[in-house]
Amino acid sequence: MNSMQELSARLQQVERSNRRMKLFGGLGLALCLVGFAAPKVCDVVTGERLVLHDESGRTRVSIDAYRTSQPAVQFTSSTGKVVGTLAVNDDGIASLTLFDAKGVKRGTYQWGKEPETPTQPEPQRKTDTVSMAR
User: Fold this and answer.
1) CB-CB contact of 76 with 62 (8 Å)
2) Which residues pair with 61 in a beta bridge?
3) Residue 125: pLDDT above 70?
4) What is the pLDDT, as a whole number, of residue 40?
5) To 5 degrees, how large is the angle CA 86–CA 89–CA 92?
6) Tens digits of per-residue pLDDT, 46-83?
7) Distance CA 9, CA 14 (A)
8) What pLDDT is attached to residue 122?
9) For the domain with range 49-111, which CATH number is right: 3.30.200.20, 3.40.50.720, 3.40.50.1100, 3.90.930.1?
10) Is 59 left (phi over 0), alpha (psi -120 to 50) or beta?
11) Nearest alpha carbon to residue 88 among 101, 71, 105, 104
12) 14 phi and psi angles, rounded to 5 deg
């Protein structure tokens, strides 16, 4: 008789475990189906500054819009010197400024709205007043 009670207790435990497994399995399946049916939402990262580091922890690229009139992308060498800056001002003029290894500015290239230059009037051509008659 003792073994029948043990067998009955074990069977009840297995049945409870089976009910829990079905419940949690059903909930898990429902969550998965809801997750797949949910609309895709685009994640947005916001901030004032983005800094990319190399494997040594040195800043190599930074995008900065913090306390500046002209947001810019700045490129830095492995020694920490700024080697280039890409920026666009409020007038829509883009500029690329390049620096040498010592940080000395070597050139700036600009694209966008051309500055207006005063045009010179064309010089008046003299008309030929001499005619050749035969």
Assistant:
1) yes
2) 52, 75
3) no
4) 67
5) 100
6) 888 888 988 888 999 998 887 677 888 999 998 888 89
7) 9
8) 67
9) 3.90.930.1
10) beta
11) 71
12) -65, -40
What would you measure as the largest C-alpha separation in the chain, in angstroms? 150
Q: How far apart are CA 70 and CA 79, in angstroms?
A: 25
CB-based contact 73:86 (threshold 8 Å)? yes
What does the block give as tokens for 104?
């000395």
Angle at 93 between CA 114 and CA 44, to 5 degrees: 155
Q: What is the mean pLDDT of the chain?
A: 80
Position 9 pLDDT exceeds 60 = yes
Question: What DSSP designation does 4 have?
Answer: H
**What pTM does this model have?**
0.50
